[in-house]
Amino acid sequence: MSRTRPVTVVVDAVGGDHAPAQILDGVRAALAENPDVRIILTGPADVVEPFADAAGGRVEAVATTEIIEMGEHPASAVRSTKDSSIVVGARLVREKRADALFSAGSTGACMAAATLVMGRIKGVSRPAIATVIPTAGPPCVLLDVGANADCKPDNLLQFAEMGEAYASVVLGVERPRVALLNIGEEPTKGSMLAQESHALLAEKLPSFTGNIEGREVLTGAADVIVTDGFTGNVALKLLEGTSSVLLGQVKDAMTSSLPATLAAAVLKPAMMRLKSQLDPDTYGGAPLLGIDGVCIIGHGSSGPVAVKNAISVAVQAVEGDLTGRIADAVAAN
Questions:
Q1: Count of domains observed in the chain
Q2: pLDDT at 50 (0 to 100)
Q3: Residue 84: left if φ>0, alpha if ψ -120 to 50, beta else—which one?
């Protein structure tokens, strides 16, 4: 898709545990890295306006008067706080003043705002949260990781189509391999949802390679791994927790004695590369797929690197016409 103007990303300046300082640092880094990106900052006037004034015309400030707190009920908060930074950001995308939205605030509120304000792509029954996870080979896409705890086979088929489009546009995979997360490789294994989903995916999706077990998720055996939001969220949190514990234990082992410390000095460059590969900040945020527009949801603990990378992912998704690719894939089935 050819574009006649730069990509404009709305950034919620007050979403996240370290907002606004680290959010603004991430925006500053994104502007330095990509001279064509434009930013619209939503948040209190005393936060967004001075930053925009100093940005030389590449940042627009849209002052808002409300903030959705982490503990609020997402849908109720979206409906009752029309001038919150998240809701206003979603409205700017709907009105075509911006191409994408990023927020590290409440995941539920961001999902609700995107769904209620931006709307779903025609034909999409349920949006899904996807995440990029590292493997022994190239990274892969896992979805859904929390938007839909209860699913039907039709939902998983759409998740597969949306994940396939995302892997192609953002990860650059020419022909993504799609697998279904299950407790065995055979088509008859798993719950009724898994068995029926396997049959539907095999019938409708040429790129479907079959079931994948949990032990194979990190091997690089698939480019897109599909499951329901409950299972996907448990799998993601287990992977994040395991990597954190293992890295901590390796660090302790490498500082446990003088010989280990000397060896650690030699291994430090390789260990830093491994740490970067396993760090969720490296992959920015999690896209909410199926929304009529690009929406990237950041970790609540997002720092400048995560914010910068999330903005970069948003730009890739817009430039690659991710929304259009998903719409075409869903319409085909």
A1: 2
A2: 95
A3: beta
